[in-house]
Amino acid sequence: MKKITNRAFSLLLIASLVIFGMGVYIVRYVQHGEDWALYFAGTNSDSSGELLDRNGVVLASFSPDEKLFAQDELTRKANYHVTGDYWGRTGSGILRNFQSGAYDFSLLKGTTKSQNHTMTLNIDSELNNTAYQAMGDRKGAVLLSNYKTGEILVLMSTPALDPLDETTEPQDGAYINRCLSAAFVPGSVFKLITTAAALENIPDIFDRTFYCEGVYKIAGIEITCSGTHYSQSFEQALANSCNVAYAQLAVMLGQDTLARYVRDYGFMDSHKLNGITTAKGSFPTEFVGDPELAWAGIGQSTDLMCPYSMLRFVSAIGNGGLLYEPSLVKEDSHPKTTRLVEASTAESLKKMMSYNVSAHYDGQTNFPGLNVCAKTGTAELGDGSSHSWFTGFLDDEEHPYAFVVLIEQGGGGLRSAGVLANTLLQAAVNR
């Protein structure tokens, strides 16, 4: 009798586990069945379609008989990290998902092939080509978007490769999309976050002055500045990119407050761009003490930033604090909007970034005919070199463009990334 009871219990347990497993599978199938099916459909050669830029330039096309890319070698290279390839060598291109889009899916019928599949991108391949040529043989990332619509016009990462060249060994890092899939020391572009936090947490911030003699000591640790600025206002401190002033502000605000702003603005998160997962940034969240906090507040320490996250931030500032979520794909539906930055904070940041360009970056000479609002960054690395950053937007109703330029080990932000940004923006407004 005892054996029968044990056997019955064992069978009941097995049946329960089978039912539970089936339940889990059904739930997972309902949630992810489309992803599974379309992934494998995308690897099937029995599909066809075209991938176009915003002006109708064919970036890729495929059929059961052949897989093609743009006719022009420059276009293939400059747009490689937008398209990716048919073999999945880079994880950030949209071509694999695009191939999957040649199929429809239902939970009951599975995948069925759709007809005349064409995907049109917001990307302007000619502007991508301009950015690629301006970057030369340097490594870096360039993003340009319309902050009134969220359309991404430029997404260019180097080094790149020609997907049709099977004889040349790709450069180291060519498969990495630096716009989306990597995070870098931000340097002084991080001061835009510290500025926003100060605007909202220090009521008399515009009445304060900050004194800089090139060095500021905190608990016996020296915070060095690139210049000697003496007495300066808050607005001047940002234009001077004064490390002394911003070290004081970071300590004044406190680590918890700064970390909250970094999180709230999305710099610590991965984002989704048309199904592509972007890299997370970092900021010290465990207690580090005032000297390390001071360095973190000026974009050094363990700070890391994904260029795409910065694009979202400056896009929101340019649009009064309201973010139109960026998109690579031209869609009929309205883009998702998010109140990323308080309207009054965005307005103050806009004025201060405009002052940066007019008072400190010699805007009329370096950006002729452009109403640029921007911030430079020279992110110091352990080997003595620096990443060059330039980010901001045009205050221009006809050309509402937000941009991020990063050049790895490129040196000074204005002299390197700023020059590339001007080349790109001049081309964009004259398209």
Report on the structure:
With 431 residues, this protein is an alpha+beta fold. It is 38% helix and 20% strand. The chain contains 14 helices and 19 strands. It has helices at 2-42, 73-78, 80-83, 95-100, 125-135, 191-201, 234-239, 243-253, 255-264, 290-297, 307-318, 343-360, 363-366, 413-429, and strands at residues 49-52, 58-62, 67-69, 103-106, 110-113, 118-120, 140-146, 152-158, 209-212, 215-218, 221-224, 230-233, 272-273, 276-277, 322-324, 337-339, 372-380, 386-394, 401-407. Strands 8-7-19-18-17 form a five-stranded antiparallel beta sheet, with helices on both faces. Strands 3-2-1-6 form a four-stranded mixed beta sheet. A hairpin with a 5-residue loop joins strand 1 and strand 2 (58-62). The longest helix is centred in the first third of the chain and has 41 residues, at 2-42. The chain is globular, with a radius of gyration of 25 Å. The relative contact order is 0.12. Residues 32-43 and 102-115 have low confidence and may be disordered.
Describe the strand arrangement of the main beta sheet, using strand numbers: 8-7-19-18-17
Low-confidence stretches: 32-43, 102-115
Assign the structural class, choosing from mainly alpha, mainly beta, alpha/beta, alpha+beta, or little secondary structure.
alpha+beta
Largest sheet: 5 strands, antiparallel
What is the mean predicted local confidence, pLDDT?
Answer: 90
SS field, number of helical segments: 14
- Per DSSP E runs of 2 or more residues, the count of β-strands stands at 19
Q: Bin the strand percentage.
A: 15-25%
First and last CA, distance: 87 Å
Helix percent band = 25-40%
What's the overall geometry?
globular
Measured on Cα atoms, how large is the radius of gyration?
A: 25 Å
